[in-house]
Amino acid sequence: MVLTDMVMPRMSGLEFLEQAKRAYPRIEVAVMTGHGSVETAVQAMKLGAYDYIAKPFAPLDDLRLFLRRMADKVRLVEENLYLRERSETETSLHGIIGNSTGIQNVLRLISRLKDTRTPVLISGESGTGKELVARALHFRGTMASRPFVAVDCGSLVPTLIESELFGYEKGAFTGALRSKQGLLQSADTGTIFFDEVGELPLEMQAKLLRFLQEKEVRPVGSNLKVKVDVRIMAATNRDLDAEYQKGTFRKDLYFRLNVVTISLPPLRERRSDIPILAAFFLERLAPGRAVQLSGSAMKALLAYDWPGNVRELENCLERAVALGDQSIIEVNDLPNAIARAEVQAEPSAAQEFSGRDLRATDLEDIERATIARVFSQVNGDKALAGKMLGISRATLYRKLKRYHIGAREEPPESTTLQ
Ligand SMILES: Nc1ncnc2c1ncn2[C@@H]1O[C@H](COP(=O)(O)OP(=O)(O)OP(=O)(O)O)[C@@H](O)[C@H]1O
Ligand SMILES: [Mg+2]
Question: Domain 269-415 class?
Answer without folding.
Answer: mainly alpha
